[in-house]
């Protein structure tokens, strides 16, 4: 089945970077929004005239990104501006074609290789950090493609530019499923670092420990697990 035809399927298929063309057909925006914690997002900036800035890392086609803006407007009562980035240019093209909001921007970015776009966005807003950086179901893909050290680098990059960091890590079972799907698709050379990963069955705990102990983040909220057995954690 072609990638274009998969857009209408509930089967996630197999991809290298989590860039599913049909992502929101099996991971509904409404279900993600429903579980997001409420009442903890009030802005603490000294200048209340500044917008509430959000970075959505791994934004796919932008469906959730669009709704995050509305969610945070309701939570903060402030003007909200969002930057959505994804490694897949085809998904970003879809996001841009569907976007009618001048306060939402989408760009193709591999954050592991080049974060100039993110820096330039912050500079244009006269800021050094986002109020919230969202990393929804992306840590596994960073991990599989960039090893343990790459995941630590990613978390540090996001932490440095976030007042509040939102992380939804995939559990180890998801790694095993991703590998099986790629094998069934007979893809060559996929996930070459999988067997060498040291953060494995306790990967969620390792991520949390790294954020708290190495990056000095404090977990202020943890949601119930979603139907995908994932929890959303908020770190100040």
Describe the structure.
This protein is an alpha/beta fold and 236 residues long. Helices cover 39% and strands 17% of the residues. The protein is built from eight helices and seven strands; from the N terminus they run ααβαβαβαβαβααββ. It has a seven-stranded mixed beta sheet with strand order 3-2-1-4-5-7-6, with helices on both faces. 37% of the residues are buried.
Write the layout of secondary structure elements.
Blueprint: H1 23-26, H2 29-35, E1 52-57, H3 63-76, E2 80-86, H4 89-98, E3 104-108, H5 116-124, E4 130-136, H6 139-160, E5 162-168, H7 172-184, H8 203-214, E6 219-222, E7 233-235
Parallel strand pairs: 1-2, 1-4, 2-3, 4-5
Antiparallel strand pairs: 5-7, 6-7
Salient structural properties:
single chain, 236 residues, alpha/beta, 7-stranded mixed beta sheet, 8 helices, 7 strands, 17% strand, globular
Compact description:
By secondary structure, the chain is of the alpha/beta class. 39% of the residues lie in helices and 17% in strands.
Unreliable residue stretches: 1-9
| Protein structure class | alpha/beta
What portion of the residues fall into strands of 2 or more residues?
A: 15-25%
Helix content: 25-40%
> Count of DSSP E strands?
7
Strand order of the largest sheet: 3-2-1-4-5-7-6
Count of helix runs:
8
Largest sheet: 7 strands, mixed
Q: Tell me the span between the first and last alpha carbons.
A: 43 Å
| Rg value | 17 Å
Query: How confident overall, as mean pLDDT?
Result: 91
N-to-C SSE string, H for helix and E for strand: HHEHEHEHEHEHHEE
Shape annotation: globular
